[in-house]
Amino acid sequence: MDSDGHKRVLDPERDTAALKALTHPLRIQLLGLLRQHGPATASELAARTGESSASTSYHLRVLAKYAFIAEAEHRDGRERRWRALHTLTSWSNESMEATEAGRAFVGLARRRQIEHLERSLARYEADLAAGRLGQEWVEPSGITDLMPRLTAASLTELFDTVAGKLEELTARDVDDPRAEHVVFVAAGLPLAAPEHAAHEHAAPEHADREPEDHEAEDPHPADLAPADREAADREAAGRDAEDRAVASHDAEDLNP
Known about the structure:
Blueprint: E1 2-3, E2 7-10, H1 16-22, H2 25-37, E3 40-41, H3 42-49, H4 53-65, E4 69-71, E5 81-84, E6 88-91, H5 93-97, H6 100-129, H7 152-173, H8 195-202, H9 211-217, H10 226-254
Parallel strand pairs: 2-6
Antiparallel strand pairs: 1-2, 3-5, 4-5
Helix pairs in contact: 2-4, 3-4
């Protein structure tokens, strides 16, 4: 584990137990609440999450065991208060991809971030409708889903630039009474070219074949002998079944 007082950096080789502990969705939520709202007791966090205080108390102790949180100054001696030790958790995607535990953690963390975005959008709309947010927040708020073409180096540069600017603006606004908590989610997810397009790029010479080449490779069933037509029909049916299976798999991937 590495940290600088601001950021907890996880390593999949050294922090296997900590990664496993943090994959519990309630623990991720509790850690987020402590980071966003400051120190709290198990009872206060139970009220916010709808869990029992016994449950939140247990999961807080697990987070403390792996140094994500620690005891805070108590208002009285009756109940523990907990505080987050870092403002964010970070890791190397390349290192995480090398282990099964790392891949599982990153996948879960990203899906929790998407869920957080959905909850935040609903809360933003409700706060705006109820007048809890001023009209000055209407214009700058929003979500964008651009699809630029970038190299891996450019995507890294983009994230570094955004992170640097966000740190600068956060420091500038830290004591400004007009500032509010802003949920800022950034995603950079490269998409490989479709398989047929990749084949066209990999073997462009095939695009210039004469029509008879295509006919020779895939003759029309009507031009075949009866036995050959039956074999072609069975092959086509098999391809259709395979295509349906692939389509079903893709649909599942889109809705994890």
